[in-house]
Amino acid sequence: MPTQDAQPTRGQLLQGTLDLLVLRILALGSHHGHGIAMAIQARSGNELLVDHGSLYPALQRLESRKWIRGEWGVSENGRRARFYSLTAAGRNQFAIETGRWNRLVESIARVMSPGPTPEGA
Amino acid sequence: MFGRRSQEDFDAEVRAHLELETERLRAQGLSPAEAERVARRNFGNVAAAGDRFRDVQPFAWAEGFGRDLRHAWRALLRTPGFLITTVSTLALAIGAVAGMFSVVNAVLVQPLPFPEPERLVALTGTAPGSDQPERFDLGADFYLQYKEHSKLLDGITQLDSGTATLRVDTRVERVRMAWPTYDLYSTLGVRPQLGRLPVPEDGEGVVVISDQLWTSWFGRDPSVIGRSYFVSDDMKQVVGVMPPEFRFPNDETVLWIANPMRLEQVRPGQLGALTVARMKPGVTLEQLDQELTALSKELPARFGGPPSYARLIESHRAVAVPLLDRMVGSTARTSLWLLLGAVSLALLIACANVTNLFLVRAEGRVSDLAVRRALGAAPAQLVRSQLAEALLVAVPAGLLAICLSAVTLPLFVAAAPQGLPRLGAAGLDLATVATTFGLVLLCALVCGAAPALRAASANLHSMRDGGRAATAQRHGFRNGLVIGQTALALVLLIGAALLLQSFNRLRNVDPGYDTDGLYTFQFAPEQPHLTDGPSWGRMHAAFMERLRTMPGVTAVGVVNNIPLDEATSTARFRTDTMAEDDSGTLLARNFTGGDYFRAMGIDLLQGRAFTSDEAFTPNSNVVVSWSAAQQLWPRESPLGQSLRHVLGDNTVLPFTVVGVVEDVKQDDWREAGEAVVYFPLTGPTPTSWRLSSPAYVIKSPRADSLQGEVREHVRQVAPEAPVYREYTMEFLARRSTVELSFTMLTFAVVSGLTLLLAAVGLYGVLSSVVSARTREIGVRMALGATPGAVRRQVVSQGTRVVVIGVAIGVAAAFASTRYLGALLYEVKATEPALFLLTSGFMVVLGVLASYMPARRASSVDPVVSLRSE
Predict the structure, then answer these.
(1) CB contact under 8 A, B14 and A56
(2) Whole-number Cα distances in Å, B562 to B726, B729, B737
(3) How many contacts does A have with B, using Cβ atoms within 8 A?
(4) What pLDDT score does B820 carry?
(5) Ordered alpha helix ranges (H), B105-204
(6) What is the nearest CA distance from B407 to chain A, expressed in angstroms?
């Protein structure tokens, strides 16, 4: 399928990144699935479009690991929806995943930066 | 499971999401329809999400399988014809296997009810080149030698068995008894439930009784211990009652009379008692054979005996066989394994048929499967749903099969040859039910595997072109099924034909006597005046006079061993031309009186039969059978020849041959006529008459309704004497062939069933192949192919497959029919005519099974078939 430059990244996140993003959004407060997708999209400046089809299995996965908790509630516009919030274990996990993410980003940045490697200097 | 979410819950969440998304998009100005479409597109594959949802669920697989089962069940209910055909096909085949398994398990596999039964063996001997049977039972000389010197045995016992007259107060009956040495009980490891076992100090005066006798004759009265009753002519004291499970050497034995077995009773070379031993732990049959063979070489030095004894021992080897094998007998073992094999083949064919039906069914759903694949269903899920369907057919089939065996197993047991030990134990036990369910799972796997693999490989491609792409490969598999079915069915058919031919030959055997219009019975008079041969003989003569007065009776005779009922004893004979120290020729002997030969319809070939005087007074005339005459005087006339009867202590009695009669089948319907020397009824020695309990033979058109009258005559002359072994000769003849006819009948039923299955399978495959090619045939006919050409092509295609199957079947049958050897009679296991005939039959069946779909193919309307696509 031809891809245009302006097209936002859609659903092709790094392995495990979607989980991290979900935890990040829920760290700000409880949300339903659609809200989580919208929040990720908004916070990424419309760069990341979450594949809705992958979101729900991810939520299910996080819930079965007891990092998030799901409860049926009523959405802002009066619809029944399932709201997710972080558990204590989820908050822990979020801290761990954040640290891991930051290290990953730094190391990738070092690899990508121009010039010789520090050791080779 | 706590915290588990249902599929409905998940679906509701997805629905909520789609609604929220649609609302958002509408807020951005899209039309309602457009908003819904984009919302769905943004979500992506709903079904795949559902699958992924299920995959992270605990017990997801089980839940999915449950859903598959429900779907499959509804689908099966929509096609009741398919359901009924497959379930009943499998039920019949599984039921047959389960039933045969139960019989084989009870008779051949279950251990004997003694402690450490694997250490129990029956000891026999072989002496190639001697006049002994190929495998013979041992005499007391072997028993004593082994008992005293073997280092590998923990115990050894020897026993004779037979019948005895049991008299308890006024009740008198003939019962089965055994005559074991004292060590029987310690060797087998059994204890009485009441009283004690015999010990050597008891002498011959004690007896142990069975639980069954204790119950039916004594009402389980414990005071029976210590009392004495008449057993045949002696008083015996009951010292013990055995437990119910002790039935040895057969189920009918109710008395065990102590046998002291003294050294001075040993007659070297006199063979023929069942010898049972317990090996020490860890001893192998080979080691035992070696030790016992070495021990037996010392026998002539220890016991002396004639030169023939020394020669016998020279070539003798001991052969120990597991006791269980000995008790069941090799022919019965062969029959049972064969039948189990036959029904297993039938099950294979049934599975092949059901597999084929599943394949045809799956074909109708190729596009359905392809759509499910395209929507993201994992191959494993499609396989699972196919297996669910197969399981739903196999499980009811298994349940039905169990119900079926509950009904047919007792019928089978009732129809099976008598005397097969432990057959009564065959039934729907735990092992059988467990095996049945094992078979159910196996059938489900086998029948579900092919369609499941097809389902897994279903793809978009096959959806697009309507499933034709996989056609060639699929037909390859189906042709394989037909080839396999044909081959298996042919093997069974050839087996059945061989048995049928044997049975036919056996029925037409001339046994040397008539089998119709003959009634035979025995009774045991115990009158005080019968104290010597002549008075005993006169009693029989007088009694036969009474029998002759019965209306319709044309001849009455008496004989020591009636053919096909009791085996004759053997004795050694010398002719004038043989050397003095020659131990002579071993021949069967029998004692006759009255009009025996005429009553039985045994033809007199030369000379004369006994006169009534000769029959009942000691004299020196004998009649020989034709084979005996051939053996003794191959070039001379046997009449007037002198014949010397060599007795056990080497004394010799001279006799003169006065007549020659035709050979008769004496012991076994299937063996050649025996060489027999007939003595007058009172026998060659003054004591011969004491040993015999002769059978009366009455020739009368009313043979099968004489029992009451005969019993009345016996009651008048000897009210105390039980009447027993009351048979018609027809019954005896049938009984001696029952094993073969039973196997044949069962085999024939199984093969008939199999043939039917194979024919149905062949028809099914060919018709579905033709339906799948309707379009192609339509095109060809539109292009001018004649119906005849289409028919020919379809038939030749079917025939080709069948011919390959037949070729494989013939090869397989050629390799396997020799296992039938023990059951065949005057038929070679590889009889070319039968092979040709059955193969031809299979091919014709194949042509017929292809012709019907071929006719359908040729009547295809080209326009209709083209439009149907």
Answers:
(1) yes
(2) 11, 9, 16
(3) 70
(4) 81
(5) 140-149, 184-188
(6) 53
Q: Which residues of B touch A64 (CB under 8 A)?
A: 3, 56-58
Closest CA to B865 of B764, B797, B794, B783: B783
Helices (H) and strands (E) in chain B, counts: 29, 22
Residue in this structure with the two tokens 């299955």, named with its chain if needed = B757
Predicted confidence (pLDDT) per residue in B276-327, tens digit: 999 999 999 999 999 999 999 998 888 887 777 888 888 889 999 999 888 8
- To test the contact with chain A by mutation, choose from B4, B15, B17, B54 the residue with the greatest count of A C-beta atoms within 10 A, namely B17
Nearest to B573 by CA among B633, B640, B652, B637: B652
C-alpha A41/C-alpha A36 separation (Å) is 9
Residue among B645, B627, B531 at smallest CA distance from B584: B645
A35, A57, A75 ranked by CB distance to B53: nearest:
A57
The pLDDT of B33-56, averaged and rounded, is 73
pLDDT at B546: 93
Note the maximum CA span of chain A.
62
Angstrom CA distances, B814 to B485, B498, B503, B811, stand at 17, 12, 20, 5
Buried b (16+ CB within 10 A) or exposed e, B378-417: eeebbbbbbbbbbbbbbbbbbbbbbebbeeebeebbeebb
pTM of the predicted protein model: 0.69
Percent of chain B with pLDDT over 70: 89
Distance of residue B388 Cα from the nearest chain A Cα, in angstroms: 26
CB-based burial, A7-45: b 16+ in 10 Å, e otherwise: eeeeeebeeeebbbbbbbbbeeebbbbbbbbbbbeeeee
Cβ–Cβ < 8 Å for B423, B739: no
Evaluate if residue B247 carries a pLDDT over 70. yes
**What is the pLDDT at residue B3?**
44
A28 touches chain B (CB under 8 A): no
Contact between chains at A53 and B48 (C-beta distance less than 8 A)? yes
Q: How many CB atoms lie within 10 A of CB B6?
A: 10
Give the residue from B743, B768, B861 showing the smallest Cα distance to B100: B743
Contact flag A56-B24 (C-beta cutoff 8 Å): no
ipTM of the complex: 0.81
**Inter-chain CB proximity A56 and B53 less than 8 Å:** yes
- Look up tokens 């007058």; give the residue: B680
List the single range of A29-38, A41-50, B378-387, B674-683 with lowest mean pLDDT.
B378-387
A103 interfaces chain B, CB cutoff of 8 Å: no
Q: Please indicate whether, in this complex, the C-beta atoms of B43 and A52 are within 8 angstroms of each other.
A: yes
- Which of B158, B88, B154, B84 lies closest to B119, judged by CA? B154
Beta bridge partners of B590: B678
Least-confidence region, from B140-144, B248-252, B699-703, B756-760: B756-760
Contacts of A10 in chain B (CB under 8 A): none
Task: Determine contact, residues B407/B77, Cβ cutoff 8 Å.
Answer: no
SS3 B193: coil
